[in-house]
Structures
1.
Amino acid sequence: MEQKKSQEGLNVKKNENFSEWYTQVTEKAEILDIRLGIKGFTIIRPWGAGIIENMFKFFENELQKNGHKPTFMPSVISKENLTKESEHVKGFTPQVFWLKDINEGQELALRPTSETVYTPMFKLWIRSWRDLPMKLYQRAHVFRLDTKATRPLIRGREFIWIECHDAFKSKEDAEKQVQEDINVTEKVMHQIFGVPFLPMKRPEWDKFAGAEYTVGSDCFMPDGKLIQQPSTHLMGQKFSKAFGAEFENENGKKEFLWTTAYGPAISRILVSVITTHGDDSGLILPYSLSPVQTVIVPIFTTKNKEKVIKKSEEISSKLKKLGIRTELDSDSEKRPGEKYHLWELKGVPFRIEIGEKEIEKKEVTFFTRDTKEKTNMKITDLKKIPSLGKEFDKRLLEKADNSFKNRIEEGNSEKEIKKILDTGKVAKVNFCSTDKEGVECAQIVEKRLGGEVRGTLANSNEKSNGKCPFCGKPAKKVVYIGRSY
Amino acid sequence: MEQKKSQEGLNVKKNENFSEWYTQVTEKAEILDIRLGIKGFTIIRPWGAGIIENMFKFFENELQKNGHKPTFMPSVISKENLTKESEHVKGFTPQVFWLKDINEGQELALRPTSETVYTPMFKLWIRSWRDLPMKLYQRAHVFRLDTKATRPLIRGREFIWIECHDAFKSKEDAEKQVQEDINVTEKVMHQIFGVPFLPMKRPEWDKFAGAEYTVGSDCFMPDGKLIQQPSTHLMGQKFSKAFGAEFENENGKKEFLWTTAYGPAISRILVSVITTHGDDSGLILPYSLSPVQTVIVPIFTTKNKEKVIKKSEEISSKLKKLGIRTELDSDSEKRPGEKYHLWELKGVPFRIEIGEKEIEKKEVTFFTRDTKEKTNMKITDLKKIPSLGKEFDKRLLEKADNSFKNRIEEGNSEKEIKKILDTGKVAKVNFCSTDKEGVECAQIVEKRLGGEVRGTLANSNEKSNGKCPFCGKPAKKVVYIGRSY
């Protein structure tokens, strides 16, 4: 029994070998499977897909509230359209999958992103300022022939995302949208999923191919490296000019559209949910996201099985009526201990254990995944589960926020910055420039420290002072330097 | 004004020129757009995408109730796997899109369907009968390089579907699943979407490539031709043998899995929703599916605008609180008549017109899309909308059922069958055989009548009698012959 247990459970600690922990937890908690053996393409199993479905709901709900409407665009893009915006083509064409067959004379690529599909349609759908803003989104799979090492969900060749493409009548409106996008990331990824982030206005050399500027969301992995989560881009008039997408403004004059794009990669955000909250026993899923919020494990002998199962079913249907996603694990082949172990590995927030003793006392044993506390709870008190769920998520959020805060430190010299990075943190640094002038210093950061200038804090006017520790010129910006995935 | 109206509205009658009606209604009601100009790939606009989202919800809800779990499989399949099952490869490889770049030595195709992805995973995930049944599904886009003429949503090269792939321990269990799949089509597509169908067990020569048998759902288009909607397939052990997917049965012996597949093509079912219910003024959407269930059109002058808009907003928020998908169309640029016209074209079930007169009487003018009746309704009675919605959908269903019933006629000679087909109906015919023996007669049906033997009625033991009208041999089957898309 014990041997079997250790085979099924994790045999590595999260903080000792994060990389191996991630591999084991995603496989053993049945999030994904890579055994199909196509580099960069991952199978997402029901437990992972269930979490993703819930993530989609929260994001889509928020986007719809903000006036976004759904669409379904083709998965392919013609070469003609894909190559219309010159910076975009430089950035993306080396990364696309081309189809072998020519479709009626057209060369087609699998979409890496869909600016070059939405912009020509904006041109057809929008005539005047009265049609604006136009805010569209789609759930989509996108494809990038990334040549670097792939890691399941972290870096792959196909990923699942939502992409929003919005058109406006002025730069001001478009910039407000960039802000709204950052707020959506804050409301959904941070407040609901419990994953804190640094909203980073990327340096000039690190923006989206074709954008005026990009704000990325940087999240910490347990090893202190950063992973980029949703980014939002002010495209300005670059794509609308490339596609001739004009509108008639309030003065009756033709003007090019102002566009933005926002792309929460749901399959990658799942990585941050897993790695932010999990522990040495496995996943810990936010109550809001877990496919099963409460699992019921009946404890029975052959003699009292019927009675215990009956009571468990009663409780299960009661919880379901309250809208709690509930699973009754009444499998007779497994011992209760094995079940506890499995559901802890899978990260289910609450577990109800119920046997004859509990039935007599009209109570259950109630286990909470994050604190690992077991308490006795009156059956009549089970209606409190949704509010306990809220507290559960609040605890995860607070824990993540505390860890996040402790991971940012000021660094004033190369030596200090190196030390900060080596201890798995991000350095806040007075830096020469995030325009072209800063490129050389950014290269020093990369070569000598293995780090990256991730950008300046969006929505904040952090005042720089002193000199850039790399070139000695006056510091114009406060940047954040970290190592990344 | 009138001129503008006729430009925007339909200028063709559904029963006079269905093909043109379909083109106009899908374009003018903003369901889709084909102007991206990639043959076989269609853009689905927000109005169409909103309907599709609702269709997904009903199907997924039903599938989950039946124990199906979500997954996300790669959009690509390796050549090695795609070509493992010999009949499958014959049926599908001429139809697939291959990728140009070789992915680490593997040739990859865009999935036309995913049996060859799920079966090798069943092999890894299923050890014994205790793991069965395993019922999985995914929302997916699939790709088929169909060389025939394409028509938006009807026949294309990319479509949006749900595919279910299930594994069982016995043929009996697998056949029960085929029945359950037919029931899902009945419950969702027929009862909820109001689209009746003939569940047709396909002849031997028309089954899914690799299946033991196929049950397709045939729906009528307004021109009397049939369109295939969800089909379900008993794969038997064909795929499990090709992939060596075994399990240990209750006697401890190895056995190949029994598998089934079910594929509701949501983007194609949308065609049947549009064509079954629409009329000469445009779409008529079921209350259950319409992105907007009630539209409010305020009628105001410059003088009373504020008052009327205020009351309209009150009503709007009241309806939203009742869970009714409501849109307030308070655009000042358009006249009420234009708005009525547009929302009728888009098929919104209910419209509330409200002006100063109505406000004084504490009522609204209430328009119902299918009957085109206008009545006065007390504002306090608006809470009845959800139940009026149910009645609305019931009327659509009854109307569709009546039309459906009248479209099936018995035909006993080639001449009679031809006449039935020529009048836009389906002929019920005593036919020699749906096995190989029947192939020649089926070819006669195709060549001389432009029709197809669609199959025998699933779930029914219709007794054949007499002789096959084509070869004169004793009739073993009652088949349905129709023309099709």
2.
Amino acid sequence: MIVEIINTGSEIMLGRVLNTHQQWLCAQLAALGYVVNRQVAVPDSAADIQNAIAESLTRSQLVICTGGLGPTSDDLTRDMVAKLLGKELREDPSVTAHIKLFFDARKRPMPELTRVQAQVPEGATVLHNAHGTAPGLVLKVNPNRFHPESLPALLIMLPGPPRELRPMFLDSVVPLLKRELPLESGFVCVTLRTAGIGESIVQEKIHGSLIELVKAGLDVGYCARPWQVDIRLSARGGTARTLVENAERLVRQELGRNIYSSEDEELSGVIVSALSSRKHTLVLAESCTGGFIANQLTNVPGSSAVFLAGIVSYSNESKQKLLGVQQASLDQHGAVSQEVARQMAEGGKNLFRADYGLAVTGIAGPSGGTLEKPVGTVFIALAGPSETVVHHHLNPYDRETFKMVTCQQALELLRRKLI
Amino acid sequence: MIVEIINTGSEIMLGRVLNTHQQWLCAQLAALGYVVNRQVAVPDSAADIQNAIAESLTRSQLVICTGGLGPTSDDLTRDMVAKLLGKELREDPSVTAHIKLFFDARKRPMPELTRVQAQVPEGATVLHNAHGTAPGLVLKVNPNRFHPESLPALLIMLPGPPRELRPMFLDSVVPLLKRELPLESGFVCVTLRTAGIGESIVQEKIHGSLIELVKAGLDVGYCARPWQVDIRLSARGGTARTLVENAERLVRQELGRNIYSSEDEELSGVIVSALSSRKHTLVLAESCTGGFIANQLTNVPGSSAVFLAGIVSYSNESKQKLLGVQQASLDQHGAVSQEVARQMAEGGKNLFRADYGLAVTGIAGPSGGTLEKPVGTVFIALAGPSETVVHHHLNPYDRETFKMVTCQQALELLRRKLI
């Protein structure tokens, strides 16, 4: 099956935004067994959009197009597809009603311009947009209208904003694909998520034991993310399940506790579940990560049951006033030190009589480094029920990557204590 | 001038890596005045690479292809281009010497496999790779070999690793483009960033006044992000600068203070600059945003000069203990109330004698809503030097979007006070 993705948007072509749809959709589709053969990005121009869609339809059985469904004058996909396929646009009252409801819920008047989003090409299936006003659109295309040799294809149009596209893909497109374009051979895929070991070490550790399974048809993929590596084990056909199960067993033997999940789950989700099931509580004291860890934890629904408070102690005064860090320790060891990390973790824990206090202090850069403590230096302290441990890391990355990596290291320290 | 980019790599098509070349190259090219008309990604497959290059050459005067120049069996671009254009591959002794030097400098033997990278299609110009072994390749293509109607084109092949590609582009490709493909007409582009008004309202407000300029060649684009809309004004040719300047003036007249930047800048960056230049300080008290705002602010280098502390008061106890919120107010009005937001902002400000205290309390969902205070309810309080204001919003989105939108609203409230 040939699958193509088309991303529309002049801001993409000007390099103003990073096209994250491409990776996200490719990864989602690959996990379902549909490997993307080509991805194309074009600007918000009628001719470019029409040409790209027409060309993809002559080659593919599945074309997914993102963007250009909004209310403004540069949102052209809906019109261009209707023209290309010779379909009339008609107002779909259910979409109009949804748009009205959307603005009612926000106590705002419905701008007249937004009504254009209810224009649907005849024959199209509408995909509900739970997070915005532009619906997704699906058309079964008999493409011989413009290319007689081509195969019939499914054309799926999704709205551009990621927070609208992603839930729509998961809730509506995945069931649609399974129904309309079932894969001929079974496809089994398991992703094991590891923390704390690099991609090449992961590969060195598991490569040898998987060789026979790879010869028998197992596919192994690696995805390196900050301080974590996802291992994707997949196979097709009648023996797919056995192959993947055997591979998972071998990988678990080699990597053991480095594996923190076999679901599409973040480390923060694993932590919240583990704390919840033990009825344990946590206080965070963050300096160099500036709230990043608190934000990750509070992205998990239910985190309020276990996360009592986070203190972003970005100044020395706040470390002293809120966490009880001693002036003498700051003078003698500096704010970025094992001693201060320990006092931050214990201070946070004691203030709320929590079960755990987790603290980080470090130098995110770009400035502030010294010979002794270069940019990237970080101390992570975990105060638990019986003891406090402090780990030292060097994370010499840009500011945002530094935060991500440090957060993963801190959460992994807590996970190892909990699980 | 038609410009296209081709990115090769199976790992891109499986969604294992994010294709950052696309944004980086598009932004670099746009800044030089070459706007990319199409970007294509294909897997490491001979047929896919050949088809993509052949198609691009029939449409474009400039084609930049990334990846597939390395030494392994899936590096196919060099061979495929030579075949496509009917060129012989010949070893270039200067490249072989460079590869030898590269390994000598690292005191490692030169692997025999790497020698293939010195194979150069006849007639190609070699671009020096200062950070790796695979050279870049440039071919002037007389394309009527495979498409008689097409124009002559420049085909530039660059190595895949970003730390090799980027310096090669800046050091070798930029001078080459200026020499070989000088632009006949100038390209001018300005992006205005707005906060607090929706995409369709923005268009309603500015559409009318820009009509004449659009007829004269102005291009207007919109990019909607959570609670902000970017407006892109661009034009080409001799009148480009006048067109864009006139458009900017008209848009500023209509949208006034809603515009917070004409640079590629986030609201958090504007806030840190404004506080810094006034030598003012800020304390954050976050409940429902869970550290998101602190994280945004501390992503800005230099934020430590103005941001004293953030308190993520996720429990009632932490609101009382750290911010001095009164038990009676919690009992009478609830944690999500105008009264508690005000006490949080003032408590944070007073604790550190800061100039500003900014506080948010709300219901992020998915649970916790009531009839009176549904999911998405949020109160934002700003305690300033002379008074405290509290705003009420309803942001009924998923948890992460709720945080983003609420953060923008809080930062915008502060910006309006500052600027």
3.
Amino acid sequence: MFCAELKSDTLKGIVNIISTLIDEVKFTITPEGMTLKAVDAAHVAMIEMDVGKGAFESFTATDSEIGLDLDKVKGVLKLASSGDVIRMEQDESHGRLVFKVGNITRRMNLVDTSSMSDPKVPQLSLTANISVSVDELQKGIRAADTISDHITLKAGADYFELSCEGDTDSVSLRLGKDVLPALDTDSEVCSMFPLDYFSNIVKAVPSGTMVNIELDNDYPVKLLFGLADGNAKVNYLLAPRIESE
Amino acid sequence: MFCAELKSDTLKGIVNIISTLIDEVKFTITPEGMTLKAVDAAHVAMIEMDVGKGAFESFTATDSEIGLDLDKVKGVLKLASSGDVIRMEQDESHGRLVFKVGNITRRMNLVDTSSMSDPKVPQLSLTANISVSVDELQKGIRAADTISDHITLKAGADYFELSCEGDTDSVSLRLGKDVLPALDTDSEVCSMFPLDYFSNIVKAVPSGTMVNIELDNDYPVKLLFGLADGNAKVNYLLAPRIESE
Amino acid sequence: MFCAELKSDTLKGIVNIISTLIDEVKFTITPEGMTLKAVDAAHVAMIEMDVGKGAFESFTATDSEIGLDLDKVKGVLKLASSGDVIRMEQDESHGRLVFKVGNITRRMNLVDTSSMSDPKVPQLSLTANISVSVDELQKGIRAADTISDHITLKAGADYFELSCEGDTDSVSLRLGKDVLPALDTDSEVCSMFPLDYFSNIVKAVPSGTMVNIELDNDYPVKLLFGLADGNAKVNYLLAPRIESE
């Protein structure tokens, strides 16, 4: 059993993040909220999301799993205005989820989750810890566009830098301690990542969100941030592109 | 002879409605205004429009016919700002209509109307009568998108419903008497229509317009509404799609 | 040596004008500013631009030449907001120009200018002299769209007219002395021009700019206007399309 109401903006925020990686998703439902673990088809990035009860206007559920086609959920979101409340109710007899937005009722077939297994999220302990507004990251991504397919993240004692090195041209965005709420590293660390993945996730995070970045040398980067006033927590892990490959 | 001035918004409203069905149109001009009857190439929908003198800022005409290419008229509308007055004057010696918008003069060849006959508009007496804001219809159309190629309209004693049934998913917009200025039917009636036609006409009606819908079982639907503060009257008729076909 | 700072809007205005003709450009730098002479590949139009020191927030340079790829400069402009100051500094050892926008550093390879020769700008003495707001010209261009590939400019004692003559349709924008700050001609003059070239340059001139037009019979037209509060001067020359060809 699953019946919940949430603001359309909250649902939109959740869907935008997940759909950077996958189109069909399995949510694990408990009486305390929804969780999700997903990896993209190429196994380059991984997402772990925990949407607590508090992110919802109302939430009543027993343990269950729900498989959703995110493109269809995006269609439902287009029917709602900002601030509208969306109601979701499981219709177990028909294997459907019923969405209600105002006087619109949208019945959606659930996706079969039997073949969708949860990926194992590696436990990483990374050297550098940076707190940065996603707006700065979005600025860095705009600058990187057309220079290269990769972006390098680098952190030192007093800076965090995003840079791109092309054959003839280069660009870098260097952020000092004055614009970084937190910056903590024992040594200078640096890893390179596929620009498209990094760009997609950074663009999907709502403007104004603070992102915690954990970084090391030629290691995955971890992006941690909250949605829905912190009631939803996201852990995004992106594999590095090792230069010597 | 035909010489008239009207607000660009009025002309735009008229052109938007007609161009959902046809590209070239014959207007019948009398000293009292312009009328039009048109059917689309596939004979699925029909439009009857009566633009009275009152819709114009000035209007002087003798009985005549004018054939227009609506794409060209749309080009003229792009030259006018909202609130601008557009002047149209027939140049009979050259078979042209001369548009004036501010200090722009646009001379347009008339379309030959000799082969354009008026369709016969069937007189229908339909069971249900519903008054509804076009904004509600537009909401229903947005919801129907991607579910199916058809939309079902249904009216009962206390509701009017737009719905779409796909293979696995469905959507419906149910409007109660609280949002319907008028709802009058002896029995529950229901017909299905091609979504593209219904969608095109509903999108072309200006936001805020009240539409009168006449509906029956497996019969055409009639949409009646006004433009230009009620000085132009539109009667739109759409053939049903009978399921057993 | 070249090091300068200027408002992003100023750089944008300059780039928009030049890129109507060419993609790669050679600027001649002196201690007093930058100049440019360029002709398009088809030798139909020519541009002469003089950007004085006063157009910059700061400007320090010795005599030199700088070759730039305008598409890349447009990329830099996308990183700046209106009002932002962009810093450009020549890195002579690497043959690069370094742009700084806020905390972004963009290093750009310079284009080789050795094969780029300055075109000779013909000295013309043209009969008619018209001062007109570019907004009026932009209105005329919107009207000309879809009628013909050519636009005719005509000036008489008390009017300036832009017109287009198609096979069946025509359009004209006639401006009287009331909307023309200056209009001076000994006789009626008229020349026809390729609409695409005329349209591109007119659209690139910022709204509100006053353009001085010099016109004659079947002769090139000269468009003179200022950018950056008059600190940059542009002379644009467009070859006529002679009807008898």
4.
Amino acid sequence: MTELRTTDVVVIGAGVSGLTAARRLAQAGQSVVVIEAGDRVGGRTMNLDVADGVITEGGGQWVGPGQDRILAMLDELRLDTFKTHVDGKSIYHRRGRSKRYDGTVPPLSPLALIDFAQVQLRLERMARTVPLDAPWTARRARTWDATTFGHWLDANAMTEEAREMFTAAFSVTNAESLHSTSLLVQLARIRGAGGIDHTVNITDGAQESRVVGGTVRIAERLAEDLGDAVVVDSPVVEVAQDADGVSVRSVRVDVRADRVIVAMSPADAARIRVTPDLPTRRSMLQRRWSIGAESKLFAVYDRPFWREQGLSGQAVTDLPVAKYVVDNSPPDGSVGILLTFLGTAGAGCGEHWPDAILDDPAARRAAFLGDLTVLFGAQAANPTGYLEKDWAHEPWISGCVGSRAPGSLTQYTDADRRPVGRIHWAGTETATINQGYLDGAVRAAERAVQEVLNCGSVAGEPSDHADRSGRRSVTAP
Amino acid sequence: MTELRTTDVVVIGAGVSGLTAARRLAQAGQSVVVIEAGDRVGGRTMNLDVADGVITEGGGQWVGPGQDRILAMLDELRLDTFKTHVDGKSIYHRRGRSKRYDGTVPPLSPLALIDFAQVQLRLERMARTVPLDAPWTARRARTWDATTFGHWLDANAMTEEAREMFTAAFSVTNAESLHSTSLLVQLARIRGAGGIDHTVNITDGAQESRVVGGTVRIAERLAEDLGDAVVVDSPVVEVAQDADGVSVRSVRVDVRADRVIVAMSPADAARIRVTPDLPTRRSMLQRRWSIGAESKLFAVYDRPFWREQGLSGQAVTDLPVAKYVVDNSPPDGSVGILLTFLGTAGAGCGEHWPDAILDDPAARRAAFLGDLTVLFGAQAANPTGYLEKDWAHEPWISGCVGSRAPGSLTQYTDADRRPVGRIHWAGTETATINQGYLDGAVRAAERAVQEVLNCGSVAGEPSDHADRSGRRSVTAP
């Protein structure tokens, strides 16, 4: 029997964004029900068990300065952070040679350094012309949205080395090839994250800190406080709006509410049937959302042995698999963990991975450990453990970050977050600041909650949404 | 109770491709079951009722010379075709002025005609370097796949008028903005269709003929012959492969078979859970498939009154809604029908439609009839009927044609049609010749059937590349 409930607001999706929305609504005196398709909370955050009492993060794992809303939430939940390990020299490996370096800037050739700087300057100058709330209104929006970041880099970076650096840095944060992602989308993200240095760096950057116990603790703590309001394992099938409210039908619970907040990526929202039909712009945005996915690969050692050699564990390389390596050991260093990201979109620069790397776990592991051995010596060849988390095959989550393919931002504009009658949209994809980050997930939730509270639970629709009731259909003469 | 069946091959999807595959398998002595999610056969072909005994086509409607496989199927099914009405003068309307013209070439300004010709020449020259079976191996594949057709046109067409002509022609056949679609994808399609003239033209082109009774008769006749083998209203939930065969679980029937042919767009195939996991390349291709959608708008009159004025009913315009108009009356001219296509992706050139046009049926109808009145006079203002078919809100079909966003072809290469164990892929999206057309649907089916009959080894498409006068017909509405 499907359970029936009545509430003020239904939230669909128990990731960080959905659970934040539910908490803020509850704090404002609203009753809530959170419905989650999967069998756990956390969405794109999760823990992997490394050893007794030791975890590592299988999904989003970093927070940094300027990410004020997620940092405030961590405070509120009394969750501690610790610094990503950076002590020691990092490795820059290219064309078969390793160089060690201090600080954040790899020892590129002098010409490549100058080239990198001029490209960065131009990108940040372009990004400053992109209005965060409406990137499609930038003067050159149409041109920038009609091509890819990779295409622009090919034409504007003069050295291959600088191009490789940008590719390495942005492929990881985007989980897709730069030759797929809209230049305009990237400029908006650069602006929304406060510049390229902030995006790329650990210290003073977006990768500065981790959460003790793993970032999934955020969702778990939020869910604990919400208690029975959270229903997992219950895919939503349909959302039906009418003049008086909204009915949400899911596998385990049917809920009648005043409003609904959908806290999923737009790609995943497309799974839900909405009646009456969504506006065309929203429907097409969902259907054309270009999800990105990558895997995290972890090699586990009995201790972080590289630290004994004066190494930080960080590496930037042109090796087959381990393009970017970072020390992901637990805060006490009780075991050593090296992490890399395997973008499913391809090995940068438009080349694609061999199928063996993508689909043969043994071959992938061997290639990864081979790369680590090149960087950190023979000790790296024999880990005590090896873990992966693949985001390209999750049943209810289409991928990691994803974005809008070329043309989408100028065509579908604000359909990612414009309310549709009683339906409001959260999820980090709908944030204008720190989109794609945990901070964006919290910001989007808090914005959606404000919309709901401003509308009043049972009040009429805000006038600017009134035209949304128009739907198209086949009309016979 | 879910019914249980055992068969040689399961086909998922009862569109033209799936039903063609089932017929060819049955002809080869294989037993088949066809499972369809929706409540009817035909997929992206369907009829709309205009009046007693009069229909018009809501989906793909045209076939043309050189589309040998669909023409052979029409012969086999004893379905008749008739010529799209072209007698009389057509209208070229731009900047408030209408000009009448004969033949296929609108009276552009002399400079725009020269410009159009040079762009066409360059595109066709580029297209000739793109291998049909492997566009990603073209020498400039990486560059061409990293940008959009619209971006290239902006840079290479010198006159706005020529740019507008390309946009009008290609937006309709692609059902998406040229500023979204990969240049490499378009070059491959130009090559696969035998040139731009064939794509654009009615006479001697892809829009030359229609099917008496509507193109949905193809699927209906195929289904009649297959009888109980076709199960509708039964969405497939899971496909599970093992060493001995494949199990297909759907709402109304569970089937055990040796092999399965999935005859759906890759976007829709993503709805099905596959175990073990699909290869990453295939999974990501499905998740990143960039579906296109547009609507067909029909104004119905008691007779084709424009013919009395010496007009063909065809128009190419820069009006708000009716960018391209064509006479879509039934073969006997018993009523008059004017058809236009409303691309949801935007009004060409990166601009987007006002929401009122997209989502307010009354406003859209008024705008369309206003445009027709400009073109064909006051009589056009008062149709006896008005119909629409919208492909942006179908529950089981994500859109019309769609394509691969920039970067997809070079990254995921042949994942659209490479068999995965016992799973084979059909659907017009997997055709290399006349992709996106009814002819591609048949070709893809026949290629998939060859694979199955060869016990899984990869087959080429039935080849009649020899006749490069090959023409194509739009399966998109």
